[in-house]
Automatic annotation (TrEMBL), chain A:
Keyword flag Cell membrane: yes
Sorted UniProt keywords: Cell membrane, Membrane, Transmembrane, Transmembrane helix, Transport
Gene name tied to this protein: ecfT
Location in or out of the cell: Cell membrane
Annotated organism of origin: Weissella thailandensis
Membrane topology according to the record: Multi-pass membrane protein
Family according to the record: Belongs to the energy-coupling factor EcfT family.
Name the record gives this protein: Energy-coupling factor transporter transmembrane protein EcfT
TrEMBL record, chain C:
Principal cellular location given in the protein's record: membrane
Protein name as catalogued: Energy-coupling factor ABC transporter ATP-binding protein
Membrane topology summary: Peripheral membrane protein
Keywords: ATP-binding, Cell membrane, Membrane, Nucleotide-binding, Translocase, Transport
Family membership noted in the UniProt record: Belongs to the ABC transporter superfamily.
ABC transporter domain segment(s): 5-241
Species per Swiss-Prot/TrEMBL record: Weissella thailandensis
GO MF annotation list: ATP binding
InterPro entries xrefs: AAA+_ATPase, ABC_transporter-like_ATP-bd, ABC_transporter-like_CS, ABC_transpr_CbiO/EcfA_su, ECF_ABC_transporter_ATP-bd, EcfA_1, P-loop_NTPase
Pfam families tied to this protein: ABC_tran
Source species, domain of life: Bacteria
Length: 267, 290, 280
């Protein structure tokens, strides 16, 4: 059941995008979410689309992987688009049947929302597919460093995040084997009524929880035994290094942003 | 229920049709004789555990078919048939104590039988019998399984499988992590059970001592397929082959081989009794020198 | 011989338990020694390991590590000297990659980054895990994870290495490789490394210079492996395994053969049998 989740999974590679600093990718994918709103006509969206497609092509992973990544979100996208279709009531009326009224503005708006949604998801998927989760954690720590001054335990949070990430595959395996053991004892997951389904997860969740606590206690011992006591005297083995390609990526993105703003006057 | 098992050209791929697709098994064909003790050996990652999941319908073969009694399992087999099949199969996973979850020991052992349709009374009777078999005393029945010692938790979990009164009992390294006495007790329990109830037992193990001592039949896995099967004597006869496969030889056989190097030839030594018998005969001068 | 660890009258009971896990334990381990602590599950061996680096504090008695008394104030000094490898390879892996894990202990001690890099490399080289430096733990075998755990300890340059049932969850190949690795380390570092292995693996215990048997929280036996292993009845009484050669001797004795009383290794017994049979 855990095997079909592709979204958010790191896919190893050696492309230019893979090698970009995590901070660059974090900042740019966040910036993209806002920048995309500058597009207000066909040319703007075409430009944003082309830029996204270029970035995707450069990952060397193939567009197919990204499209598959969209699959779990299809329902969400569909609903949002429909809402636009029904709630925007200005413009010429195209269909009027009982209480349903679809207008030209509604159609245009829903198309825009759909395209924007897709672009944002595709662009953030570039971050998760080409960056090791650990590097994302490191990047976040580095970007959040200024907040240390305000008492935010940035290093501790980053260590917690990196340990949590490191345990994801371990706990997934464990969940799978507990599930197998309970199925062998006659539990039927994903069968029957909603109540029955919820109940069937109790024999999975309790052992998973108990074992996770046991692991946490052992890990705590292991960390203490190796001298962990938190605080600021810790040094860091892993450092992020800024390369020319990161500067290039940022410049390219700035040019894209300026161009996107310019498209607003093109129609 | 008849429980002879046959694998016919079974192949299995993990996460098929994704970029993460990895082959698990290929061209697996072998038989597990009914009512016998079969040992499955092979390197870590050789495909043994994937094969075991096929035995209980936890995964379906991507290609080929598995015949278990009169049930045929293929890629198209329906969930309902699998559930019926599972009622007759007991599976003890590695570190089975991880499956405990109920409030009391007794309830946890009753869980399996009840899922497969036993009444409250029948389930309790089966649970009590199983707990007795694994030597868990009645004063622990109402305790939380999480309060028990590691060894006791392991035995309660095994009782939870035995209580289902399976015709096929599959054991995936059931003694891993136990101390020597705990290991001995469990192995005795399983062999007694097999003899008493004439059930089919499949044991996955790294310990060649167990294979030599208990198994009627051995299946060897490597790189996701079966590379050899036969009686323990046949399997352990070709030592060079075993070394090539990075598999161990039982201690008694190793000892006999060391003697052979010194010129003392013994015949078909697999366990310590055979070794001691032949050596005693030699030392008493009953056999001529070779 | 200089003692590096000494316990005098140490007692420890876990909170909420009626009986102490360890009772009145007194013993000395010398610098450079390899000591195996054996005992059945729940005998108190792991409690003993945790007391040695102050993961647990004794209720009574005193523990000294390299002339430092184990107390709250000294615990970080003690943890600098005592490195520990635990049973479950998964639950002691802190780093998201092999190299990160080895670096973790040094990060905690504020080791400068340049020095860390060279020490990570050296430690990984020592356990032959250098090609795996950037791998994630999920992609390693149990044996490989434990070798990384050893590297993580070695990078901290400890005086004492404690293996707390570190081979119990490994397959036979992993177990053998790990014992061989400790042999190598011992051979290279000699008296600079003291090894304490808590185990019920007979082969692991047989490699030690001295064996201590703990049963129900008490130290019941100390001696050379040969002395401890020769007493099969006693080993069984303590819930332990009996070496194969000793099992065979017992079986031969049952068949009326007059076998030597002293402990024999497999090679020793083969030689004895060969001589006895040849002279027949």
């Amino acid at each position: 059941m855990f095997s079909n989740m592709i979204i958010g999974r790191y896919m190893p590679g050696d492309s230019w995008i893979h090698r970009l600093d995590a901070r660059t990718k974090l900042v740019l994918s966040t910036a993209f979410i806002f920048v995309v709103f500058f597009a207000n006509n066909v040319i703007g969206y075409a430009l944003a689309g082309a830029f996204t497609l270029l970035a995707i092509t450069m990952t060397g992973l193939g567009v197919g992987v990204f499209l598959r990544g969209l699959r779990p979100l299809v329902l969400l996208m569909f609903i949002t688009t429909l809402l636009q279709l029904f709630f925007v009531q200005t413009g010429d009326v195209l269909v009027h049947w009982a209480f349903i009224k679809i207008t030209t503005d509604g159609v245009i708006n829903s198309v825009i929302v759909f395209v924007r949604f897709m672009l944002i998801i595709m662009f953030s998927t570039i971050l998760t597919l080409t960056t090791q989760p650990l590097a994302v954690a490191d990047g976040m720590e580095s970007l959040l460093k200024p907040f240390k001054k305000f008492g935010l335990p940035v290093s501790e949070l980053a260590l917690m995040l990196s340990i949590a990430l490191r345990f994801v595959p371990t706990l997934m395996d464990e969940a799978q084997s507990i599930m197998n053991a309970q199925r062998a004892r006659g539990v039927r997951f994903n069968e029957g009524s909603l109540m029955a389904r919820i109940k069937s997860f109790v024999p999975l969740l309790i052992p998973l929880f108990v074992n996770a606590i046991k692991r946490a206690i052992e890990l705590g011992d292991a960390m203490e035994a190796r001298g962990y006591r938190g605080g600021d005297q810790r040094t860091k083995y892993r450092v992020l290094t800024w390369h020319t390609r990161d500067t290039i990526a940022i410049i390219a993105f700035v040019i894209f942003t300026v161009a996107l703003i310019a498209t607003r006057w093109m129609m | 229920m008849v429980m002879a098992i046959n694998f016919d050209q079974v192949g299995f791929t993990y996460q098929p049709n994704t970029p993460f697709a990895t082959p698990g098994l290929h061209d697996v064909s072998f038989e597990i004789p009914e009512g016998k003790f079969t040992a499955v050996i092979g390197h870590t990652g050789s495909g043994k555990s994937t094969m075991v999941q096929h035995l209980d319908g936890l995964v379906l073969p991507t290609t080929g078919k598995v015949t278990m009694g009169d049930q045929v399992v293929t890629a198209e087999t329906k969930l309902k048939e699998l559930n019926e099949m599972r009622a007759h199969i007991g599976l003890v996973f590695q570190f089975p104590e991880a499956q405990l979850f109920e409030q009391t020991v007794l309830k946890d052992v009753m869980f399996g039988p009840k899922n497969f349709g036993a009444s409250e009374e029948d389930a309790q009777a089966a649970a009590e019998a199983a707990l007795k078999k694994v030597a868990i005393s009645p004063d622990l029945y109402e305790r939380s399984p999480f309060e028990l010692s590691g060894g006791q938790m392991r035995r309660v979990a095994i009782a939870g499988v035995i209580a289902m009164e399976p015709d096929l009992l599959i054991l995936d390294e059931p003694t891993a992590g136990l101390d020597p006495q705990g290991q001995r007790e469990l192995m005795t329990l399983f062999t007694d059970l097999q003899k008493e109830r004439h059930i089919t037992v499949v044991l996955i193990t790294h310990q060649m001592e167990y294979v030599a001592q208990y198994a009627d039949h051995v299946v060897v896995f490597e790189h996701g397929t079966v590379v050899k099967s036969g009686s323990p004597t046949t399997i352990f006869a070709d030592e060079e082959w075993l070394h090539e496969k990075q598999l161990d030889v039982p201690a008694a056989k190793q000892f006999a081989d060391a003697l052979a190097e010194k010129g003392i030839q013994l015949h078909n030594v697999l366990d310590i009794d055979q070794l001691a018998d032949q050596l005693a005969a030699r030392l008493n001068g009953e056999v001529d020198h070779v | 011989m200089t003692p590096i660890i000494s316990l005098s009258h140490v007692t420890y009971a876990y909170p909420n338990s009626d009986a102490p896990a360890l009772r009145d334990l007194s013993l000395t381990i010398n610098k450079g020694e390899w000591v195996a602590i054996i005992g059945h599950n729940g005998s108190g061996k792991s409690t003993f390991a945790k007391l040695l680096n102050y993961l647990l504090a004794p209720d009574e008695g005193e523990i000294t590590v390299n002339d430092v008394i184990a107390t709250e104030e000294n615990m970080w000094t003690i943890r600098d000297m005592v490195g520990m490898v635990f049973q479950n390879p998964d639950n002691q892996f802190v780093g998201a990659t092999v190299a990160d894990d080895v670096a973790f202990g040094m990060e905690n001690r504020g080791v400068p980054r340049d020095e860390m890099i060279s020490r990570v490399d050296a430690a990984l080289e020592e356990v032959q895990m250098m090609p795996f430096a950037d791998r994630e733990p999920a992609r390693l075998s149990g044996g490989q994870k434990q070798r990384v755990a050893i590297a993580s300890v070695l990078a901290l340059q400890p005086k004492i290495l404690i293996l707390d049932e570190a081979t119990a969850m490994l397959d036979p190949t992993g177990r053998r490789e790990m014992i061989a690795l400790v042999h190598e380390l011992k051979a290279r570092m000699g008296n600079d490394l003291t090894v304490i292995s808590i185990t019920h693996d007979i082969d692991e215990a047989a490699s030690a210079d001295r064996v201590m048997v703990i049963n129900d929280g008490e130290l019941v036996e100390t001696g050379l492996p040969a002395e401890i292993f020769a007493n099969a009845d006693q080993l069984r009484r303590f819930g332990l395994a009996v070496p194969f050669a000793e099992q065979l001797k017992e079986q031969l004795r049952l068949r009326g053969i007059d076998v030597p009383n002293e402990y024999l290794t497999t090679e020793g017994l083969v030689t004895w049998l060969w001589q006895s049979i040849s002279t027949k």
